[in-house]
Amino acid sequence: MAKITKKRKDALAKYDLTQVRSLVEAAKVVKDITYTKFDSSVDIDVRLGVDPRKADQMVRGVATLPHGTGKTVRVLALVTPDKEAEATAAGADFVGLDDYISKIEKGWTDIDVIITMPAVMAKVGRLGRVLGPRGLMPNPKSGTVTTDVAKAVQEVKAGKIDFKVDKTGISHCSVGKVSFDETKLAENALEIIQTLGRLKPSSSKGTYIKSITLSSTMSPGVPVDSQVTSAN
User: 112: closest CA among 77, 63, 149, 67?
Assistant: First the structure.
């Protein structure tokens, strides 16, 4: 069993682990117990009553966080020459096609999101073995394969995130930084919870949202009321 560090012990001593809280209260505790010297990410983990091994219970979706993620998102737009100016104007960090495909084939993945268009998916599809394991493969369901490249770039830059449940049925994603105030963190977290609620598979029986936890990088988790309907 891993030894608990003094900092983690101090953090755990600051709150009651068994108490479930509202989103604002949980965010406040997370800010209070975070002990990293950098501006940590704040994450939400939602355990769902689904079996991701069944295709009809795989929950995947997108949400636009009202206050963004606090992260600088590096966007690559793989587009035809006639769309390059549009993608650049929308804020894409890297724009092109064949040159970037070649770079990725050689192992370059210094990006966070790739946006492309249906017309070039035959070329982009070859990159699956490099991009797939890193979660970078463009997908129409997440809005990263689209004819409206400019809109997709702008949405990602503004805080649109793509998420899905892992093999244990947990959805894990970032809802901001510790430097955000607790209300903004709570409102971002609520957006994720409500989006997950709308994505409930009809084949999921019993309790759908089983547990919700907020945490930051290196901090213990803070339980949130699983019946939460508002940020407060």
Answer: 77
